[in-house]
Design brief:
Elements lengths: L1 H8 L4 H10 L5 H19 L4 E9 L5 E2 L11 E9 L3 H14 L5 H11 L24 H10 L5 E4 L5 E4 L3 H16 L4 E5 L19 E5 L4 E7 L15 H14 L3 E7 L8 E3 L3 E6 L2
Parallel strand pairs: 8-9, 9-11
Antiparallel strand pairs: 1-3, 2-3, 4-5, 6-7, 7-8, 10-11
């Protein structure tokens, strides 16, 4: 279930992950992800390590590149020169090295640790960074794109947490609300009729007009251009149960749906929850707010 949502949210290969879970079924989920990342780095480097030009300034007895006349050399037989060097210290390799150094501290598997250290030798002259906003257009390095998505997943500050007890271990966590929302966005787009328009994280209304405060932001707004009807869909990553009062639905979620219906003049609001083993049937409140369950 989680792997299917990760496939959409991080654009990771679900089939590869699933196969690896079969091949490495004795490993914790975290180590499976680390193994997959290391394999991807290895294959990426085998294809071609990314290089980029770096300006170099030095004093030399030989002319290379451009002579810097504004910076005369101390000795007559030398020149102050500037030239571009093709070097592996580029943003893409920095992100990979940063991830490898991060995983050195996380892995508890000897095989993964050995492979990380082997790979790090290829990044000896590469710096580190966590800046994902500056790496080059994917058309320049298409074979790096998947490994960079892995870096983004593994370096996500909210993805890892350490729990203390009899044993100190590292768990791999995911932003489940975002995963579920992204999963539903893709599924809704696949099923959306042609006459309907979808608005994601819509911000056209605030709770009050005067003053315009308390921003409303439903996950999905569906507008039917033929019937001119509006529907609100909101995802909630929460496991409901028949044993809980109101199945465990938060009153604040219902207040939120009523606010959406009022401001958007919506025909109906729909709360979407993941399906549980109890197989709760969908139900409705006053035919205004529907509670539905999604099979993942």
């Amino acid at each position: 279930m989680v792997l299917r949502m990760l496939e959409i949210f991080y654009d990771l290969p679900y089939r590869t992950l699933l196969d690896s879970m079969v091949d490495e079924s004795n490993l914790p989920l975290l180590e499976i992800f680390i193994t997959q990342f290391l394999n991807k780095v290895e294959k990426t480097l085998l294809r071609r390590m990314a290089l980029d030009y770096h300006p170099i300034q030095e004093v030399s007895s030989f002319v290379r590149g451009r002579i810097q006349f504004q910076k005369p050399a101390i000795f007559r037989h030398q020149f102050s020169i500037e030239y571009d060097d093709y070097h592996p210290d580029c943003i893409e390799n920095r992100l990979i090295k940063t991830t490898l150094l991060f995983l050195v501290r996380k892995t508890m598997n000897d095989k993964n640790l050995r492979k990380i250290r082997q790979l790090l030798t290829q990044f000896e002259y590469v710096k580190t960074t966590k800046d994902f906003n500056t790496y080059r257009d994917k058309r320049i390095l298409p074979h790096y794109q998947e490994v960079l998505r892995w870096c983004q997943l593994l370096l996500n500050d909210k993805s890892f947490s350490v729990f203390s007890g009899e044993e100190v271990s590292t768990a791999l966590l995911f932003p489940m609300n975002q995963l579920f929302e992204s999963y539903m966005e893709k599924r809704i787009k696949e099923k959306l009729p042609k006459e309907c328009q979808l608005f994601v994280q819509d911000e056209r209304y605030t709770l009050f007009d005067n003053p315009p405060e308390f921003q409303l932001r439903p996950d999905f707004v569906v507008y039917n251009t033929k019937t001119e009807e509006t529907y609100i869909l909101d995802t909630k990553w929460k496991l409901l149960s028949k044993k809980k009062k109101h199945y465990g639905i938060s009153p604040s979620d219902m207040y939120q749906m009523c606010a959406y219906i009022d401001r958007y003049q919506a025909k109906k609001a729909i709360l979407l929850y993941p399906e549980t083993e109890e197989k709760i049937e969908s139900f409705s409140y006053d035919d205004k707010v529907d509670v539905m369950f999604v099979t993942l």
